[in-house]
Amino acid sequence: MPAGRRLRRRWIGKTTLLAQWHQQMVAQGERIAWLSLDEDDDDVWQFIPYLLQALRPLYADWDADFWRDMEEQKLSSSEQLLAGLINQLHYCPHDVYLIIDDFHVINDRGSMKRWGI
């Protein structure tokens, strides 16, 4: 499924479809992160750590300074975090996929729009 393509309606089997796709891709050796959301993830500062932890196992050569800064909350804005994440993924030698399940539970879309999500 191309980036940016989203299934939006509730209760139409999205999780099942994504789980089947995930299983196929992993069987082919692809690296895929899965992030399930709930209403508590409405705050971008709640969402970001979960996003980063979902992606972390997919790439062995993350920069230690990036993780330290993130864990010590030295990155003071979501834009800094996003820039750091993009910079890290730029050096990843393989494709990385991210499934965000239950995105429809997010009500505050303003901060997510800044991320292009």
Describe this entry's structure for a reader.
By secondary structure, the protein is mainly alpha-helical. The protein has a domain at 14-61 and 94-114. The protein has five helices and two strands. The chain has helices at 14-27, 44-55, 64-71, 78-90, 109-114, and strands at 31-36, 96-101. It is flat and about 40 Å long.
**Rg estimate, integer Å:** 15 Å
**Spatial strand arrangement across the major sheet:** 1-2
**Would you tell me the structural class of the helices and strands?**
mainly alpha
What is the general shape? flat
Give the total of beta strands.
2
Total count of helical runs of at least 4 residues: 5
Poorly predicted tracts of residues: none
Largest sheet: 2 strands, parallel
Q: Write the H/E string, N to C.
A: HEHHHEH
Distance between the termini: 15 Å
Give the helix level as a range of percent: 40-55%
- Write down the overall mean pLDDT: 79
DSSP strand (E) fraction?
5-15%
Protein name: Transcriptional regulator AcoK
InterPro entries: P-loop_NTPase
Enzyme class: transferase
GO molecular function, one term: protein serine/threonine kinase activity
Task: Give the SSE layout.
Layout: H1 14-27, E1 31-36, H2 44-55, H3 64-71, H4 78-90, E2 96-101, H5 109-114
Parallel strand pairs: 1-2
Features:
5 helices; mainly alpha; flat; 2 strands
At a glance:
The chain is mainly α and 117 residues long. 45% of the residues lie in helices and 10% in strands.
